[in-house]
Design goal:
The complex is a heterodimer of chains A (234) and B (885). Chain A is of the alpha/beta class and 234 residues long. Helices cover 30% and strands 25% of the residues of chain A. In chain A, helix 3 (113-126) crosses helix 4. Chain A is globular. Chain A starts with 6 loop residues before the first strand and ends with a strand. In chain B, a hairpin with a 2-residue loop joins strand 17 (580-591) and strand 18. The chains are: A alpha/beta (234), B alpha+beta (885). The complex binds adenosine-5'-triphosphate and magnesium ion.
Amino acid sequence: MSYEPLVRCDGVARTYGTGANAVVALHGATCEIWAGDHTAITGPSGSGKSTLLHLIAGLETPTAGAITWPALGARAALRPGPVALVLQGPSLLPPLDVTENVALPLVLGGVDGDDANERALRALERFDLTDLARKLPEELSGGQAQRVAIARALAQEPRLLLADEPTGQLDHATGAAVVDVLLAAAIELGAALVVSTHDPDVAARFDHVWLATDGRITVLLSPDAPSEGQPCSA
Amino acid sequence: MLGVTWIRGVIARRTGRLVATATGVAIAVALLASIGTFLAGSKATMTRRAVQNVPVDWQVEAQPGADPAAFLQTVATNTKVALPVDFAKTTGLQATTSGSTQTTGPGVIVGLPANYRTTFPGMIRDLAGARSGVLIAQQTAANLHVAPGDTITVGRAGASAFDVRVTGVVDLPKADSFFQKVGAPVGAQPQAPPDNVLFLPAAQWHERFDTLAASRPDQLTYQVHARITHALPGDPAAAYTQVTGGARNLEVKLAGTGLVGDNLGSTLGAARGDALYAQVLFLFLGLPGAVLAGLLTAAVAASGADRRRREQALLRTRGATTTTLVRLALLEAALVGGIGAIVGLATAAMVGATAFTTASFGATTATAVVWAGGAAIGGLVIAAWAIAVPAWRDARFLTVAGARRVVGRGRAPRWFRFGLDLALLAGSGLVFWLSSRNGYHLVLAPEGTPSISVSYWALFGPALLWVGAGLLAWRIAYLLLGARRFLALGVARPFSGLLANIVGATMSRQRRLLAGALALVALTTAFAASTAVFNTTYKAQAEVDARLSNGANVTVTQAPGGTAGPAAGTKIAAIPGVTAVEPVQHRYAYVGADLQDLFGVRTATIADATKLQDAYFQGGTARTLMHRLGQQSDAILVSAETVKDFQLRPGDTLRLRLQDAHTKQLKEVPFHYIGIATEFPTAPRDSFMLANATYVARATGSNAVGAFLVDTGSASPTAVAARIRAQVGTAATVTDITSSRRVIGSSLTAVDLSGLTRVELGFAVALAAAATGLVLALGFAERRRTFAIAIALGAKPRQLGGFVWSEAAFVTVGGLVAGAFIGWALAAMLVKVLTGVFDPPPAALAVPWIYLATVAGVAIAAVTMATITTIRRAQRAPVSVLRDL
Ligand SMILES: Nc1ncnc2c1ncn2[C@@H]1O[C@H](COP(=O)(O)OP(=O)(O)OP(=O)(O)O)[C@@H](O)[C@H]1O
Ligand SMILES: [Mg+2]
C-alpha cells in the first residue's frame, strides 16, 4: 500500500451559473480517500453528492480549491484507468449491447477486443447477468441496466470505484446483494469504494459515512475518529 | 390554456429546431413559388417574342366579289393599322443582260403602298440598290441575272407584257407567310412561296393590272395587311385565344367577304406549346427540390423525435389524452408551416424580382393566386407531415416505456421487404420505354386547334427513377450497414483503430437512421447533379442552335451576285478579335427539276471557324464525313430526302445543273454521292448539298464566296461584328451569334433558363449543405447523451472522433457516390424525355464539373463543420448533458 491518498480534496467548491442564478453545489470540501476506504455519502436530494463524485472522478473541475490524485496520477489519466464511475441515471450506450457496453471502457483503455470481451463476460457473470449479455439497453429493466453499469465499472478493475446511487433503481433485496458484490469486489481489488445513497441501510454497511447537506460535507462516521458531526477535514 | 403554454415552451426551449423546420418549409414554399414566378416571366417573354417575330399580324384576304374600299374600311376599323396589298400572277419574266436572255416561269407581282415598308419593317429586307421603286426578289434576280438598273419584261395573262426597270434587290425572310394560302384547311401542306417575285409601287401596279380586274379576276388577289393591339395576356395560350377569337370576330364582321390569315395566332399557337414545355421543364426541375426540402424538414423534425417522445410520455403521466397530444402537435405544425409559408413567399417574391424581374407568381392574377396559394398549402402539408403525423403515430402506438426506444433491432421497413424500390425502378423503365415509343412527344399542340395537351405521365419516368433510386440507395446502405465486418474494417478502421468493432456495431444498430441520412444525401446530390447537367446541356444546345443558324460566331454574308473570292477573307482576318476566317461558297443547283442550295467548303479548315456537330450528319461523325468529302474532289453530301427521291447509293454519280460564271448558262456537272448532311451552318433547314469548294469553283469558273464564317475566340462576337461591319460597309451583311440567339423565337431553347438556373442551383447547394451538415449535426445532437457517457467512461477526443467521423464519412461518401450515379442517370433520362426541347438533340451530356465540385465541396465542408462542432461540444460540459434527462 502506498503512503499517499488516492484523492485529496482541499477546499474544493463547485458553483454553477453566475450572478443571481449562481447555485453553490458544493462548499469548500476538504477530505482524503485512501486505498481500501469504503465510503458512503448520504444526504437529501440536491445536497451535492453527485457533484462531489464527479469532481473526485475528474469529470468536472472545481471552481475553487484544489483536487489531486496523489497515488493515481494526473486528471487526464484517471478514466479509463484507475478510476471507474457508475453514473446516477441510465448510462448504457443505446446502440451497444450489454457485453459491448461493459467492454467499452476496456477498449477505450487500449485492451484488445477479444480480451476485453472475455473480461466483460466475467464481470457480467459476477452479477448474474450472463443471460443479458446480448441484449440491448432498451431491452433491459431499469434495475438490470443499473447492474450492467456496475458490472462495467468493476470490469475495469479500478483502484477507485465511484458509484452514484447504485441501488437507486433496485428493490431492497437486490440492492443489498449489489452492495455485497461492490464491497466484495473492492476488497478483492484492494480498491477504494465511494457510493452515494439515500438508503440508511446501505450507508450502515460502510465504515466511512459522509453527510452532505446543502453542499457542505460532514463526516458522520469514521473508524479513526468516531465522533459525529465533525467537518470533513480529518 | 395548455396550447398557449405549449407553443410558448416550444418557442423558448426549442428555438433551433423550430427555426430549422420553418426554414425547410420556407425553402419548399420558395421553390414552388419561384417556379410560378419563372413560368410567369418566361411565358410573358414567349408571348412578347412571338409578337416581335411576326411582321404582319393578320393578312385579310378579300373573297371574289368583295368591294375593296369597304373591305379595307371594315378591316381598318377593327385593327390598329391596315394597308392594302395587291397580288397579280405573271406568266413569266424575261431579261437580257450581257447579250444573253433569261426567262423564268410564272411568278407573282405584288403592289405595295408607299408606307408598307415602314409600317411592317420585318417583311422585306434590302439586299442591294434602292429601298423603294421596283424591287426584285433575290432568287428571281439570280435567275434573271439582273441587278438594279436592268430592265425586265413582265408577262400578263390576257394582256400584253410590259417593261419595268429594277431599282433594288430584296429578300423576303417571311416569304412563307407573305404568300400563304389564306383559308387553307388546317393541316394542309404548306404552300411553297412562288419562285419569282417582283414588287411594284401601288400606283404602278394598279396602272398595269387594274385592266385584268374585269377580264381575268382569277389572276388577282386583294389583301389587307393589319396590325392588331399588342396588349395581350402574358400567357401565350391566353394570348392565342384572344388573337384567334379576334380573327374569327373580324371574319364575322366581313360577312363572308374575307378570310383572315392569322400569322400572329399561329405563332402564338406554337409558342403556347413551348410555354407548356417550359411548364413541364420547371415542374421537372423544381418539384424534386420542393420534395427534398420537405424530406429535410421531416429529417430535422425526426431528429427531435426522441425528446418529443419523452415529453409526450411526461404529458401522458399527467393525464393528457391522445387527442390533446395530437392537437398540440398540430398547433406546432401550424406555427412552423405558417412561418415557413410567409418567409418562403417573401423569399420567392424577392428572388423573382431580382432573378426574373417579376415579383408576380403567375402570368395572370388567377394563376398567381393559385401558385402562391398552392405553394403555401404545400408548406403547411409538409409541416403537418413532418411534425404532426409522427407525433400522432407516437401518441397512438407508443407506450410510455416504448418512448425510450431509439435504436432497436427493428425489422426493415415494409417497402424494403416488398421491394418497392425495385418496383419503382421497373415502373420508371416501363414509362420511359413507352414514352420513347412515341418519340417523347410530351406536348401535343396541333396547329390551328385551340386544345393543347401535355403528356404529364411521361414525367413519371424520371420521377419514379429518382424515388426508386433513392430507395435503392437506402437499401444498399442498409445492407452494407448489416455487414459488421465491412463496417469495422472498411469504414471505421481508419478513424477508430482498436475501437473499430465497437464503432461498427454502433453504426450497424443505427442502420435505419444512417441509411435514411445516406439516401437523403444521395437524393439531394442527384437533384443538384441532374439539374446542373441538364441545364448545362440545355445551354450548350442553345449555343449549337444559335451557331447553326448564324453559321459561326460572326458570319459575313456577301450580297447575291457578289464576285469576291476567298482572298477577301484576309482583310477580315486582320481585324482585331478575329481568330479564324473560313470562306463558304453558296450556289444554286438544279437536282432534276428541284432547285437546291449548294455549299462549297474547304473540308480541311472549315472546323477552325465553326463547330460541326455529329448530329448534322448521318452515317458518320462530322470529322469522318468532312475527311471523306476532302478525299475525293467531286464528292457531295446531300439531304436524306434527295437520297430517297433519287434512290442514291454511295458512289452513285449525281448530275447537277450549275450556272457557269462566264456564259451565265446552266451546265451539267457530275458529282459523286458519298453521304448525308442534315444540317450545316448557314444552310436552310430543308434540302441542301455540300461539296468541295475547289471543285465547285473549277466547274463554275468562279470562286465567289457566299459567306465568310468568322471565329472570334474569346472576343465578344457583337464587338467583332461591329468592327467587321465598319470595314465591309454595305457590300455584305454581318450577323453575330448573340443577336441571332435572340431571334430564334420558335424553339424553346430561346427561353432563357439562366434566371431559374441560378435560383435552382443556389437552392441545390443550400439543400446539399443542409442535407449533409444540418442533418448529421442534428442527429449527433440527439445523441449528445451517448457521447457524454462515452466521455464519462474515459473516451478521448480522438476516440469520440472515431465514432463521429466514421458515421459522417459513410453517410457523406456513400451519399455523394450514390447521388452522382442517380444524378447522371436522371440527367440522361431527362434529356431524352425532354428531347422536344432540343433541336438538334445533344450528342452528349455536358457536365458542369466546377459546379458539381462546388456541391461536393460544400457538402463535405458542412459535414466537416458539423462533425468538428459535435466533437467539441461533446467535451465541453458532459455532466450537464448527463443530468438533463
Ligand atoms: N449543471 C448544473 N447547473 C446548475 N445547477 C446544477 C448543475 N448541476 C447540479 N446543480 C445543482 O447543484 C446542486 C447539487 O446537485 P447534485 O446533483 O450534486 O445533488 P445530489 O445530492 O446528487 O442530489 P440527488 O440525491 O437528487 O441526486 C443542486 O441544487 C443542483 O440543482
Ligand atoms: Mg445525485
